[in-house]
Write a structure and sequence with these properties.
With 241 residues, the protein is of the alpha+beta class. The protein contains 9 helices and 10 strands. The protein starts with a helix and ends with a helix.
Length: 241
C-alpha cells in the first residue's frame, strides 16, 4: 500500500486554542524518555528563537514572532526501538502511557520541518543518530554513527520555521508559554515525575519547576489543602504569573 504522507499530515488538526501544542507534545515525549531511562537528574531545556527583537525604548525589547523552538533533554534517546516507533504511524510502542503514536504529525501542522539529533547508549556502546522530518519526505537524511569514548545522553528536537498562518495566534510572551506548558504537563509535577524544565529566549529564563512551586504555595494559602486536588486545574487556567 502506498501512502501520501503529506495527505496523512493534512488529515490532522491543530486546535486553534492550542497553537503551541507541538511544543507541549515534544516536552511530554522528553519527560517520558527521561522516566524511561530512570535518570535521577533529568533535565529539559526549551529555547525559543525569534525572528528578531524590536526595541522602541532604550533597554526595552518587545517579544517578536517565534521562528524556531529547540527542546533538549537527557532521556534515553532515539534507540533502535524508539526510532522504529517514530518512523511508524500510529505506533503502539507507548500505548501503555496513553500515547496514540501520532503526536509528531502535529509538529508539521505548525512548523515547516523538524531536525532531530540524539546521542544514546545501546548494546554496550554509544551512538549518535540524526534525521529530518517534514511533510515532503517524512523521515529523511538519517545517519547513525558509533561514538568513540565517553559520551552522555542528549537529544535535541528542533522545530523549525513556524508557519506564517500560525504566527498571529501563537503566544509571544515567554511567561505565557511557560504557564501553558505547566498546564499541559501538570500531572507529571503532581505525581513527582517531572524533571527540571527551563524555558528561555534571548532575554530571560523561566524555571517551570519554580512556577509549579509558586502555584502550589498560592493555592495552599488560598484553599484548604484537601480541596486543592479537585480545584487545582481550574485555578491554573486563571493563574497570572
Amino acid at each position: 500500500m502506498n501512502i501520501n504522507f503529506q495527505g496523512l499530515v493534512d488529515l490532522h488538526t491543530l486546535p486553534t486554542s492550542e497553537p503551541l501544542l507541538p511544543l507541549y507534545e515534544a516536552v511530554v515525549n522528553s519527560i517520558q524518555s527521561i522516566n524511561q531511562a530512570n535518570i535521577a537528574d533529568g533535565q529539559i531545556h526549551i529555547k525559543i528563537e525569534r525572528e528578531g527583537s524590536i526595541s522602541l525604548f532604550e533597554g526595552e525589547n518587545w517579544e517578536t514572532d517565534i521562528d524556531n523552538i529547540i527542546i533538549q533533554d537527557n532521556g534515553v534517546g532515539f534507540t533502535e526501538d524508539n526510532f522504529k516507533s517514530f518512523n511508524t504511524y500510529a505506533s503502539d510502542f507507548k500505548k501503555m502511557l496513553g500515547c496514540k503514536g501520532v503526536g509528531r504529525m502535529i509538529w508539521l501542522k505548525a512548523f515547516a520541518s523538524v531536525k532531530v539529533e540524539s546521542t544514546y547508549f545501546e548494546s554496550g556502546s554509544w551512538f549518535h543518530r540524526a534525521f529530518t522530518f517534514d511533510k515532503v519526505n517524512a523521515v529523511g537524511n538519517e545517519t547513525k554513527e558509533h561514538v568513540d569514548g565517553d559520551a552522555h545522553n542528549v537529544t535535541i528536537i528542533s522545530l523549525q520555521n513556524l508557519r506564517s498562518k500560525n504566527r498571529a495566534s501563537t503566544p509571544k510572551k515567554l511567561s505565557t508559554i511557560a504557564r501553558d506548558l505547566l498546564n499541559h504537563c501538570f500531572i507529571y509535577f503532581v505525581m513527582g515525575k517531572a524533571p527540571r524544565i527551563t524555558i528561555s529566549d534571548e532575554t530571560e529564563t523561566i524555571s517551570i519547576n519554580n512556577l509549579f512551586r509558586l502555584l502550589f504555595v498560592f493555592l495552599s494559602h488560598s484553599y484548604n489543602l484537601d480541596f486543592i486536588e479537585s480545584s487545582i486545574f481550574q485555578s491554573l487556567s486563571s493563574f497570572v504569573l
